[in-house]
Design goal:
The protein is an all-alpha fold. It has helices at 21-43, 47-55, 61-89, 98-121, 133-137, 147-166, 170-173, 175-182, 184-199, 206-242. The protein starts with 20 loop residues before the first helix and ends in a 24-residue tail after the last helix.
């Protein structure tokens, strides 16, 4: 006799395969190219001004480049702050993931340091400001132009160097010391914001005001979210130690001890 094998029921549809590493690289390159094209399109109107400045008797191209580097550095610092606060505040679990947010936090801090250094050092070629290397490297001694506000920016570059460099010596520092150094990020952001508002020649423009105060509000909001998450975690941990709260779960009272039949509670 011929035995008929019943058909095997079809299982649930297979999940789509994750994108391969090569696809991610290509997507990143496409995104970088699109960003570069957008930046090039935004900078094209400035090229005649820069060309005329370089050809003039008193070139101001160094001043324009310094101002551009300043805003790029501030934008990168802002993005690094948002990524870091997203990690500690728990929002990075939703997007772009904790590892992705950490890499974004690290690379934007390092890239921001590069643009901040360019913002300062390119002024050595500006004949109008006539800064020396010693003036640029010494906080609050950069000359007669708003020395306090400029000094805030100089201090912030050193703080950014400490924070960005701490990523690469984390194992030697230890987690506690590394976190303490990372707390300097808040002072760094406030000093950079004060530097831009107090000494920037473009700080009175509407777009600059929107950038500065929009970044301040977003950093403040994520900082409050971070404080709420940290306090909630400490409360759950304290409750778990007393037995009133299950760690990582909802609060609940301990169950009473069950009595054996026929036994009194004494």
């Amino acid at each position: 006799m011929t035995t008929t094998v019943p058909p095997v029921p079809a299982g649930p549809p297979a999940a789509p395969a994750p994108p391969q590493q090569g696809e991610r690289v290509w997507l990143g390159l496409i995104a970088a190219a699109a960003t570069g094209a957008a930046l090039a399109g935004a900078l094209l109107p400035l090229l005649p001004t820069l060309a005329g400045s370089l050809a003039g008797a008193t070139p101001h191209a160094y001043w324009y480049i310094s101002r551009a580097c300043a805003f790029v550095a501030f934008g990168l610092l802002w993005l690094s702050m948002l990524a870091g606060l997203g990690i500690t505040g728990g929002l990075a679990r939703r997007w772009p993931s904790l590892p992705g947010a950490f890499e974004l936090h690290r690379f934007t801090a390092l890239l921001g340091l590069g643009f901040a250094a360019a913002h300062a050092l390119v002024l050595l070629g500006d004949a109008y400001s006539n800064y020396s290397l010693g003036q640029l490297l010494t906080p609050f001694f950069a000359g007669a132009y708003r020395p306090v506000w400029v000094g805030f920016g100089q201090v912030s570059i050193y703080l950014l160097a400490a924070v960005a460099g701490s990523f690469y010596v984390k194992d030697r520092l230890g987690v506690r010391a590394w976190r303490l150094i990372h707390m300097l990020s808040f002072a760094l952001f406030v000093l950079t914001l004060a530097h831009g508002l107090g000494s920037g020649t473009d700080s009175g423009a509407a777009w600059a005001q929107a950038l500065y105060w929009g970044s301040a509000v977003s950093v403040l909001g994520l900082s409050l979210q971070r404080m709420r998450v940290v306090r909630g975690g400490r409360s759950r941990a304290a409750g778990a130690r007393t037995g009133l709260v299950a760690a990582g779960g909802m609060g609940q009272a301990p169950r009473p001890t069950q009595m054996a039949p026929g036994r009194s509670g004494r």
